[in-house]
Amino acid sequence: MRHPRVRVIVSLLALALLLAAAPEITAQPRTPVKIAVLRAAFVYFTPYVAEAKGFFAKHGLDAQLVYFRSGAETTTAVVAGSTEFGALATEHVTQVRDQGLRLKAIVANLTDSPFTLIVRKEVELPNAARGYPHVVRDLKGLKLGVTGRGASTDFTLRFLVKEAGLDPDKDVTIIATGGVATSMAALQKGDIQGYLGFEPIQSQAIHGLGIAKPVIDIRKGEGPRVLQEYAYNSMVAKEEYLDANPETARRMVAAVLDTHRFLADPKNFEETVKVAEKYFEGINPALLRQILQESLKAYRPVITRQAVANIGEMLQFAGLIKRAPAYEEVVDTRYAPTRFP
User: Fold this and answer.
1) CATH of 116-224, one of 3.40.1440.10, 2.40.50.140, 3.40.50.170, 3.40.190.10
2) Domain spanning 31-112+229-330 has what CATH number?
3) Which of 57, 89, 187, 234 has its C-alpha lying 20 to 30 A from 315's C-alpha?
4) Looking only at Cα atoms, what is the longest distance across the chain?
5) H helices within 25-150, ranges in order?
6) pTM score, two decimals?
Protein backbone atom coordinates (compact mmCIF):
# COMPACT_ATOMS: atom_id res chain seq x y z
CA MET A 1 0.00 0.00 0.00
CA ARG A 2 1.40 3.38 -1.03
CA HIS A 3 2.18 5.79 1.83
CA PRO A 4 -0.19 8.83 2.02
CA ARG A 5 2.76 11.23 1.71
CA VAL A 6 3.86 9.52 -1.52
CA ARG A 7 0.32 9.85 -2.94
CA VAL A 8 0.35 13.61 -2.24
CA ILE A 9 3.73 14.05 -3.95
CA VAL A 10 2.56 12.07 -7.00
CA SER A 11 -0.61 14.19 -7.23
CA LEU A 12 1.37 17.41 -7.07
CA LEU A 13 3.73 16.19 -9.80
CA ALA A 14 0.79 15.26 -12.01
CA LEU A 15 -0.78 18.70 -11.51
CA ALA A 16 2.49 20.40 -12.40
CA LEU A 17 2.74 18.36 -15.62
CA LEU A 18 -0.83 19.31 -16.58
CA LEU A 19 -0.17 23.02 -16.00
CA ALA A 20 3.02 22.86 -18.02
CA ALA A 21 1.21 21.21 -20.94
CA ALA A 22 -1.76 23.64 -20.88
CA PRO A 23 -1.73 26.54 -23.36
CA GLU A 24 -0.69 29.89 -21.90
CA ILE A 25 -3.72 32.00 -20.87
CA THR A 26 -3.31 35.70 -21.53
CA ALA A 27 -5.63 38.53 -20.59
CA GLN A 28 -7.75 39.82 -23.45
CA PRO A 29 -6.59 43.28 -24.55
CA ARG A 30 -9.07 46.06 -23.84
CA THR A 31 -10.53 48.06 -26.72
CA PRO A 32 -9.21 51.64 -26.70
CA VAL A 33 -11.89 54.33 -26.99
CA LYS A 34 -11.89 58.08 -26.48
CA ILE A 35 -14.91 59.82 -24.96
CA ALA A 36 -15.51 63.56 -25.38
CA VAL A 37 -16.67 65.25 -22.16
CA LEU A 38 -16.60 68.59 -20.34
CA ARG A 39 -14.41 69.12 -17.30
CA ALA A 40 -15.82 69.49 -13.78
CA ALA A 41 -19.53 69.46 -14.66
CA PHE A 42 -22.05 67.18 -12.96
CA VAL A 43 -23.77 66.64 -16.30
CA TYR A 44 -20.79 64.39 -17.08
CA PHE A 45 -20.61 62.65 -13.71
CA THR A 46 -21.60 59.24 -15.12
CA PRO A 47 -18.46 58.85 -17.28
CA TYR A 48 -16.34 60.28 -14.43
CA VAL A 49 -17.62 57.53 -12.13
CA ALA A 50 -17.30 54.85 -14.81
CA GLU A 51 -13.64 55.80 -15.17
CA ALA A 52 -12.89 56.16 -11.46
CA LYS A 53 -14.62 52.93 -10.35
CA GLY A 54 -13.28 50.80 -13.20
CA PHE A 55 -16.57 50.04 -14.96
CA PHE A 56 -15.12 50.82 -18.39
CA ALA A 57 -12.20 48.48 -17.71
CA LYS A 58 -14.52 45.79 -16.32
CA HIS A 59 -16.27 45.63 -19.68
CA GLY A 60 -13.12 45.50 -21.76
CA LEU A 61 -12.77 49.18 -22.62
CA ASP A 62 -9.56 51.16 -22.33
CA ALA A 63 -11.45 54.43 -22.09
CA GLN A 64 -9.82 57.86 -22.17
CA LEU A 65 -11.89 60.93 -21.26
CA VAL A 66 -11.00 63.84 -23.53
CA TYR A 67 -11.98 67.23 -22.12
CA PHE A 68 -13.51 70.14 -24.04
CA ARG A 69 -14.91 73.55 -23.09
CA SER A 70 -18.47 73.29 -24.41
CA GLY A 71 -21.04 70.83 -25.67
CA ALA A 72 -20.61 72.17 -29.19
CA GLU A 73 -16.93 71.19 -29.07
CA THR A 74 -17.68 67.69 -27.80
CA THR A 75 -20.16 67.22 -30.63
CA THR A 76 -17.60 68.38 -33.18
CA ALA A 77 -15.08 65.89 -31.79
CA VAL A 78 -17.45 62.96 -32.35
CA VAL A 79 -18.58 64.16 -35.79
CA ALA A 80 -14.96 64.67 -36.87
CA GLY A 81 -13.96 61.23 -35.58
CA SER A 82 -11.34 62.46 -33.12
CA THR A 83 -13.23 60.56 -30.39
CA GLU A 84 -15.26 57.37 -30.82
CA PHE A 85 -17.88 58.39 -28.27
CA GLY A 86 -19.12 61.58 -26.72
CA ALA A 87 -21.16 62.30 -23.61
CA LEU A 88 -23.36 64.79 -25.44
CA ALA A 89 -26.56 66.69 -24.92
CA THR A 90 -29.09 64.50 -26.70
CA GLU A 91 -30.37 67.63 -28.44
CA HIS A 92 -27.10 67.72 -30.38
CA VAL A 93 -27.91 64.35 -31.95
CA THR A 94 -31.20 65.78 -33.16
CA GLN A 95 -29.57 68.95 -34.46
CA VAL A 96 -26.72 67.33 -36.40
CA ARG A 97 -29.04 64.74 -37.90
CA ASP A 98 -31.20 67.60 -39.13
CA GLN A 99 -28.06 68.77 -40.94
CA GLY A 100 -27.48 65.34 -42.52
CA LEU A 101 -24.87 64.07 -40.03
CA ARG A 102 -25.50 60.61 -38.62
CA LEU A 103 -25.05 60.37 -34.86
CA LYS A 104 -27.06 58.16 -32.51
CA ALA A 105 -27.49 57.88 -28.76
CA ILE A 106 -27.08 54.44 -27.18
CA VAL A 107 -27.68 55.09 -23.45
CA ALA A 108 -28.50 58.09 -21.27
CA ASN A 109 -25.97 59.45 -18.79
CA LEU A 110 -28.36 61.99 -17.27
CA THR A 111 -32.09 62.15 -17.95
CA ASP A 112 -33.41 65.29 -16.22
CA SER A 113 -32.76 68.72 -17.66
CA PRO A 114 -30.06 70.04 -15.28
CA PHE A 115 -30.54 73.78 -15.70
CA THR A 116 -31.18 76.62 -13.31
CA LEU A 117 -31.53 80.11 -14.75
CA ILE A 118 -29.85 82.43 -12.25
CA VAL A 119 -29.21 86.17 -11.98
CA ARG A 120 -27.03 88.32 -9.76
CA LYS A 121 -28.74 89.22 -6.48
CA GLU A 122 -29.22 92.89 -7.33
CA VAL A 123 -31.28 92.12 -10.46
CA GLU A 124 -34.92 92.98 -9.81
CA LEU A 125 -37.53 90.35 -10.63
CA PRO A 126 -40.95 92.03 -10.28
CA ASN A 127 -42.67 89.02 -11.86
CA ALA A 128 -40.99 86.42 -9.64
CA ALA A 129 -44.23 85.54 -7.86
CA ARG A 130 -45.94 84.87 -11.19
CA GLY A 131 -43.38 82.23 -12.11
CA TYR A 132 -42.50 81.01 -15.60
CA PRO A 133 -42.72 82.38 -18.25
CA HIS A 134 -43.54 85.82 -16.80
CA VAL A 135 -40.38 86.09 -14.70
CA VAL A 136 -38.17 85.52 -17.75
CA ARG A 137 -39.51 88.79 -19.18
CA ASP A 138 -37.77 90.56 -16.29
CA LEU A 139 -34.45 89.67 -17.95
CA LYS A 140 -35.02 92.00 -20.90
CA GLY A 141 -31.91 94.10 -21.55
CA LEU A 142 -29.56 91.86 -19.53
CA LYS A 143 -26.35 90.12 -20.50
CA LEU A 144 -26.82 86.39 -20.00
CA GLY A 145 -24.07 83.78 -20.05
CA VAL A 146 -23.94 80.31 -21.64
CA THR A 147 -21.06 77.86 -22.00
CA GLY A 148 -20.69 78.41 -25.75
CA ARG A 149 -22.42 79.26 -29.01
CA GLY A 150 -24.31 76.23 -30.25
CA ALA A 151 -24.08 74.52 -26.86
CA SER A 152 -27.18 73.14 -25.15
CA THR A 153 -27.06 76.05 -22.71
CA ASP A 154 -27.27 78.41 -25.68
CA PHE A 155 -30.28 76.96 -27.44
CA THR A 156 -32.11 76.12 -24.20
CA LEU A 157 -31.77 79.73 -23.07
CA ARG A 158 -32.96 80.91 -26.47
CA PHE A 159 -35.97 78.63 -26.17
CA LEU A 160 -36.83 79.95 -22.69
CA VAL A 161 -36.49 83.57 -23.82
CA LYS A 162 -38.53 83.01 -26.97
CA GLU A 163 -41.32 81.15 -25.15
CA ALA A 164 -41.54 84.08 -22.72
CA GLY A 165 -42.32 86.36 -25.67
CA LEU A 166 -38.88 87.97 -26.06
CA ASP A 167 -36.49 87.94 -28.98
CA PRO A 168 -33.24 86.17 -27.93
CA ASP A 169 -31.28 88.15 -30.55
CA LYS A 170 -32.65 91.59 -29.63
CA ASP A 171 -34.10 91.65 -26.12
CA VAL A 172 -31.16 90.03 -24.31
CA THR A 173 -27.44 89.71 -25.02
CA ILE A 174 -26.26 86.10 -24.91
CA ILE A 175 -22.54 85.76 -24.19
CA ALA A 176 -20.41 82.60 -24.40
CA THR A 177 -18.43 82.46 -21.15
CA GLY A 178 -16.81 79.03 -21.45
CA GLY A 179 -16.42 76.45 -18.72
CA VAL A 180 -17.16 76.45 -15.01
CA ALA A 181 -14.23 78.62 -13.86
CA THR A 182 -14.55 81.33 -16.53
CA SER A 183 -18.35 81.45 -16.26
CA MET A 184 -18.19 81.86 -12.50
CA ALA A 185 -15.61 84.63 -12.91
CA ALA A 186 -17.80 86.46 -15.45
CA LEU A 187 -20.80 86.28 -13.13
CA GLN A 188 -18.79 87.33 -10.09
CA LYS A 189 -17.23 90.35 -11.84
CA GLY A 190 -20.56 91.46 -13.28
CA ASP A 191 -19.55 90.92 -16.91
CA ILE A 192 -22.87 89.07 -17.14
CA GLN A 193 -25.98 89.62 -15.02
CA GLY A 194 -27.40 86.13 -15.45
CA TYR A 195 -26.50 82.62 -16.49
CA LEU A 196 -28.17 79.41 -17.60
CA GLY A 197 -26.06 76.78 -15.93
CA PHE A 198 -25.76 73.27 -14.61
CA GLU A 199 -24.04 72.06 -11.47
CA PRO A 200 -21.81 73.07 -9.85
CA ILE A 201 -22.26 76.63 -11.19
CA GLN A 202 -25.70 77.40 -9.79
CA SER A 203 -24.97 76.01 -6.32
CA GLN A 204 -21.60 77.74 -6.13
CA ALA A 205 -23.09 81.07 -7.21
CA ILE A 206 -26.19 80.84 -4.98
CA HIS A 207 -24.97 79.00 -1.88
CA GLY A 208 -21.17 79.09 -2.12
CA LEU A 209 -20.46 82.71 -3.06
CA GLY A 210 -23.89 84.15 -2.31
CA ILE A 211 -23.85 86.36 -5.41
CA ALA A 212 -26.85 84.98 -7.28
CA LYS A 213 -30.47 83.89 -6.94
CA PRO A 214 -32.61 81.52 -9.03
CA VAL A 215 -35.06 82.72 -11.65
CA ILE A 216 -36.36 79.26 -12.58
CA ASP A 217 -35.03 75.86 -11.52
CA ILE A 218 -36.03 73.34 -14.17
CA ARG A 219 -34.88 70.46 -11.94
CA LYS A 220 -37.70 71.32 -9.52
CA GLY A 221 -40.41 71.20 -12.16
CA GLU A 222 -40.31 74.91 -12.95
CA GLY A 223 -40.18 76.06 -16.54
CA PRO A 224 -41.66 74.63 -19.73
CA ARG A 225 -43.50 71.31 -19.98
CA VAL A 226 -41.21 69.93 -22.68
CA LEU A 227 -38.20 70.00 -20.34
CA GLN A 228 -39.86 67.88 -17.64
CA GLU A 229 -39.49 64.42 -19.22
CA TYR A 230 -36.15 64.56 -20.92
CA ALA A 231 -32.93 62.79 -21.87
CA TYR A 232 -30.42 65.54 -21.37
CA ASN A 233 -27.04 63.81 -21.79
CA SER A 234 -26.34 60.53 -23.57
CA MET A 235 -23.45 58.40 -24.74
CA VAL A 236 -23.32 59.07 -28.48
CA ALA A 237 -21.36 57.77 -31.47
CA LYS A 238 -21.39 58.02 -35.25
CA GLU A 239 -23.85 55.62 -36.80
CA GLU A 240 -21.18 54.07 -39.02
CA TYR A 241 -19.00 53.40 -35.96
CA LEU A 242 -21.88 51.67 -34.16
CA ASP A 243 -22.55 49.55 -37.25
CA ALA A 244 -18.90 48.49 -37.49
CA ASN A 245 -18.29 47.99 -33.75
CA PRO A 246 -21.40 46.42 -32.20
CA GLU A 247 -19.50 44.65 -29.42
CA THR A 248 -17.78 47.87 -28.35
CA ALA A 249 -21.17 49.61 -28.30
CA ARG A 250 -22.62 46.86 -26.10
CA ARG A 251 -19.67 47.09 -23.74
CA MET A 252 -20.11 50.84 -23.46
CA VAL A 253 -23.79 50.44 -22.58
CA ALA A 254 -22.95 47.73 -20.04
CA ALA A 255 -20.35 49.97 -18.38
CA VAL A 256 -22.81 52.87 -18.15
CA LEU A 257 -25.53 50.59 -16.74
CA ASP A 258 -23.14 49.35 -14.04
CA THR A 259 -22.36 52.98 -13.23
CA HIS A 260 -26.04 53.83 -12.86
CA ARG A 261 -26.56 50.84 -10.56
CA PHE A 262 -23.64 52.00 -8.45
CA LEU A 263 -25.00 55.56 -8.20
CA ALA A 264 -28.53 54.36 -7.41
CA ASP A 265 -27.42 52.32 -4.39
CA PRO A 266 -27.48 54.44 -1.19
CA LYS A 267 -24.74 52.23 0.27
CA ASN A 268 -22.33 53.72 -2.26
CA PHE A 269 -22.93 57.36 -1.35
CA GLU A 270 -19.65 57.86 0.52
CA GLU A 271 -17.68 56.31 -2.34
CA THR A 272 -19.59 58.56 -4.72
CA VAL A 273 -18.56 61.58 -2.66
CA LYS A 274 -14.91 60.52 -2.96
CA VAL A 275 -15.22 60.32 -6.75
CA ALA A 276 -16.79 63.79 -6.83
CA GLU A 277 -13.96 65.19 -4.69
CA LYS A 278 -11.48 63.89 -7.28
CA TYR A 279 -13.17 65.56 -10.25
CA PHE A 280 -14.49 68.71 -8.57
CA GLU A 281 -11.62 70.30 -6.71
CA GLY A 282 -12.11 73.41 -4.59
CA ILE A 283 -15.81 72.98 -3.85
CA ASN A 284 -16.89 73.17 -0.22
CA PRO A 285 -17.38 69.54 0.97
CA ALA A 286 -20.81 70.25 2.44
CA LEU A 287 -21.93 71.92 -0.80
CA LEU A 288 -20.58 68.98 -2.80
CA ARG A 289 -22.64 66.57 -0.73
CA GLN A 290 -25.73 68.73 -1.17
CA ILE A 291 -25.29 68.78 -4.94
CA LEU A 292 -24.95 65.00 -5.04
CA GLN A 293 -27.98 64.41 -2.84
CA GLU A 294 -30.09 66.60 -5.13
CA SER A 295 -28.62 65.26 -8.39
CA LEU A 296 -28.32 61.49 -8.03
CA LYS A 297 -31.94 60.77 -9.00
CA ALA A 298 -31.27 62.20 -12.46
CA TYR A 299 -28.59 59.64 -13.37
CA ARG A 300 -30.72 57.11 -15.25
CA PRO A 301 -29.99 55.23 -18.49
CA VAL A 302 -33.33 55.00 -20.34
CA ILE A 303 -34.09 57.40 -23.18
CA THR A 304 -37.87 57.41 -23.46
CA ARG A 305 -39.91 58.11 -26.57
CA GLN A 306 -41.58 61.04 -24.83
CA ALA A 307 -38.18 62.51 -23.99
CA VAL A 308 -37.11 62.42 -27.65
CA ALA A 309 -40.46 63.92 -28.68
CA ASN A 310 -39.98 66.74 -26.16
CA ILE A 311 -36.47 67.44 -27.45
CA GLY A 312 -37.78 67.65 -31.00
CA GLU A 313 -40.64 69.94 -29.99
CA MET A 314 -38.32 72.28 -28.11
CA LEU A 315 -35.76 72.55 -30.91
CA GLN A 316 -38.41 73.02 -33.58
CA PHE A 317 -40.14 75.78 -31.61
CA ALA A 318 -36.78 77.51 -31.16
CA GLY A 319 -36.25 77.35 -34.93
CA LEU A 320 -33.15 75.15 -34.59
CA ILE A 321 -34.41 72.17 -36.65
CA LYS A 322 -36.73 71.88 -39.62
CA ARG A 323 -38.67 68.89 -38.30
CA ALA A 324 -38.91 66.81 -35.15
CA PRO A 325 -37.26 63.41 -35.71
CA ALA A 326 -38.64 59.95 -35.01
CA TYR A 327 -37.35 58.12 -31.96
CA GLU A 328 -35.41 55.59 -34.05
CA GLU A 329 -33.56 58.41 -35.81
CA VAL A 330 -32.10 59.61 -32.53
CA VAL A 331 -31.72 56.40 -30.49
CA ASP A 332 -30.01 53.21 -31.67
CA THR A 333 -32.54 50.66 -30.46
CA ARG A 334 -30.08 47.79 -30.98
CA TYR A 335 -28.21 48.90 -27.87
CA ALA A 336 -30.31 51.33 -25.85
CA PRO A 337 -31.84 49.91 -22.64
CA THR A 338 -35.62 50.11 -22.30
CA ARG A 339 -35.86 49.64 -18.51
CA PHE A 340 -33.89 50.22 -15.33
CA PRO A 341 -32.83 48.62 -13.05
Assistant:
1) 3.40.190.10
2) 3.40.190.10
3) 187
4) 102
5) 45-52, 55-58, 71-80, 90-98
6) 0.87
